[in-house]
Amino acid sequence: MMRLPTEIPLRLWDTEIGIKYRFIQETPDCPQAGVFPLLEVPTGDPDRDLGSGRVGAFLPLWLQKSWARKARVTAYGGGGYHINPGADNRDWVFLGLVLQRQVTESIILGGEIFHRTPTQAHDEDDTAFNLASIIDLSDCHHILLSAGRSIDGPNEFQAYAAYQLTSAHDGQPRHPNPQSGSDRRGKPRRSIFQNKYRAIVG
User: Fold this and answer.
1) Angle at 176 between CA 173 and CA 180, to 5 degrees
2) Under a CB-based contact definition with an 8 Å cutoff, are residues 98 and 125 in contact?
3) 3-state DSSP assignment of residue 194
């Protein structure tokens, strides 16, 4: 018989603070564009591998374009520069591209490919892909699922599942801004699909 733990420890990671600004509106011939700079405040305990213990920042630029209203297909992507202080850490660059389709009023399916440069002195580049879904239970309740693996660099499998409660905005759902965080070494497990709504939507 499998025994489940009687206590589940709760730990605080570093806190992200950001502001989103869309400076180009989408037109039939032009994608929308926006930025979402993030400040990472060291609220976690680095001695327990919970954060870096130093202030970091992520400076992204995202683009998005939708086609075929009936097909409800959207492409978006972009990249950013991450300021990553700390011993043996490196500043790194993230690039990614997503293609997604709204298959029902409440379900989005999509695929992505993304690349990041080394984040630590003895790290290496990593290129990976994910298949993912966003399920809107209501305007304010969402489930996010994502799974994939590396295709160049470390041979790693990654999966992500989350529930998020959001607020409504102008009568339309404000979709969540999920973030997959880092592994125990502080290596980012970011992906565009998981960070899609950091960009310019909503």
Assistant:
1) 165
2) no
3) coil
